[in-house]
Every structure is written in C-alpha cells, then in structure tokens.
Amino acid sequence: MSTQSNLLLNKIITNIVKVGASCLHLEVGSKPIIRIDQKLFNLDDQPVATKEFLEDIVQIILTKEEAESLAKNKSLVITHSFEGDIRFKVHIFYQRQTVSLLFTYIPNVIADPAALGLTKEFIDLVNRKSGLLIVAGYHGSGRTSTVLSLLNYINKTESRYILTLERPIEYILTSGKSIVEQREIGRDVDSYLAALKFIKDSDVDVIFLAELGEAAVLQTVFDLIESGRLIIVITEADSISDAIAKLVKLVPEEEGDKIKDTLAEVLLGAIVQQLLPRRGGGEVTVMEILVANSASKALIKESRFAQITSIIQTSRDEGMRSLDQALIELIKTGEVDYHDALSVAVDKTNFQVSAQKFHILK
C-alpha cells in the first residue's frame, strides 16, 4: 500500500467536492474523469491512472472481507468516508483484466421533501400508519436521496421506529424524534428476505427497502403492510405505470390477479424521477407523482396500467403531477432550460403546445 497513492487519492477527492462534481471515474491508462452537471471532464492536471495506483486504492478503501468478495465476484459496491466527513458510494469492477473505480458523491445534507418537488399531498402519505410507497427511476436519478428525505421528515416530526435495509448504506440517519436503525445487506443481515422475516415479530413502524427483486420479498412486504407497517421501496422504471407493471411481473402469472388486488389495496402513492441540468449549475429533480385514489386502484386491479397516466394528468388538485406538467413548471420558474426539458418530455407534441401557451417556447 502506497502512502503516495493515499495522498493523491485524498487530494483528488477533496478537489472534486470543491468543484461540485457528482462522480469520479478511474481506469487504467486514462486521466481521472469527473462529472459536473451531467457532463464529463478530464482532470488534466492529474497524472494518468496506473494499474499500481488503482490497486493501491482498492487496498486502501477495502476491508479484508470486502477484498475477498471483490476477488471472488469481480465487482463490488461499498460506501467509504474520507477526511472531512466526505462520503462516497464506490463501484469497483474489472475491465480488460484491470480494476476500475467509480466514486459517486453522497451529500451530507438531506434535502427537505418539498424542496425536491414533492407535493404536500404526497408528503402527507408518510403520516399513514401502513401502506406502500414506491420511489422509482433509474440509476443516478436520486431515488435514495428522495427516500432519505422522506425518512428524515418522519424522523424529525414523528415518534416512530424506522428501519432501513440497504446495500450499501449511503446516507447516515441519526435518530431524532424517531428511532432509526440502518442494516446493510451482506454485513448486518444475509438477505432482504431474511431481514424482512425477522421484522415480522419486531416493533418496527416504517421500513425502507432499497431493492425489491423477487416474489418472496414482495409477498413479505405485503404481509408486513397488512400487520400495520409503512414500507417505502425503490425500483427501476421510467414511469409509474411501468413501475407497477414490474411489481406485478415479479410473481408467477397464475398469481397475478391476487397480487394486483393486494397492490391496489395497499398502495398509497408512487413517484418516478430523473435529474436534469439546472440553469446556472447543479441538477434539479423532476418527478411524476401519483397519490393513489379509487380510480387508479381500479385500473391496477384491471391491469390497465398505461391509463394511470391519464388519472395523474387530471388530478393535480389531489397532489398528482405528470412528468410533462412538472417539466412545464420548472421551465416557468426558470430552473430548467426548455430544450433540456423537451428532450425528456413524454408527449413532445403536447409539451410544445403547452410551452407555447405559457409563452415559454424558447
């Protein structure tokens, strides 16, 4: 292990946080690359990364058990804290038989839910004693940040027992009015399913589940909700209808009707989000928001998932918002550039019409 490598890594980490970078890419034969406002930049003032340098970094940041896991599986995701309480999620993997690393910055400030764009009606759902909240999007869309914002809101305003199940633990939550426990899959407990089964006989009120990958986990989630727990889950999807459809597809087809009925009964709300460049620098979260009502629940039972979007579009007074409606609002406030918004709009023709109506077509 090289002291020089350790010093160089800490220097790079400190500098990229200062310039507001969200990611650092390190691979053999290339200069370090950082991402700022969704754009990639070479760190030209830094040396080209060597095989020895990256192997030194792996030795510096991994425990013995983590190093053994990397050697066996050829990939690993961990969190690591540097000097100054700087925290990163680190993806370590191999390409062309050499190690590469991706560092993703974890801010130490948890945003307020309203500041992220969540409506009051959706935020109020976390006051319910039981039910299911879905937070969806793709990797890098800020899903974990949104969930932790909701959990921190509960932690500051209510006296409840909160448990998070994550792999790895990204944000550290300190108990406030609530008790907060965070368990890491693979370290504190073997699997999500094992953790959930243990919870059945515990005093937990609120559960955050960072993955939902198999039918047995989904069924256990439903059982826990029926016993009086509020559960927030993360999944990958590009729309709310897609997120719901993917949950239903986790179970065998012959059990589909039962799962749809249960999902319709327990669902409180769902969001799908992505990040866009903010005018003036940084990123802004844009969200499609569903606050489940009788109409959307009926569509779930009937497998008419695609029509949920229509319910969202016509229910703004209930705290719902389509992605395109959210984009229009962000353009009107000047937070997002019109062309950036248009690039991700769902219905580009109607979006352009709406933009023209509000005189924001630029």
Automatic annotation (TrEMBL):
Pfam entry (one): T2SSE
| UniProt similarity note | Belongs to the GSP E family.
Annotated Bacterial type II secretion system protein E domain residues: 8-281
Q: Which residues form the signal peptide?
A: none
Highest taxon, organism lineage: Bacteria
Q: Tell me what this protein is called.
A: Bacterial type II secretion system protein E domain-containing protein
* InterPro entries reported for this sequence: P-loop_NTPase, T2SS/T4SS_dom, T4SS_GSP_E_ATPase
| Molecular-function annotations in GO | ATP hydrolysis activity
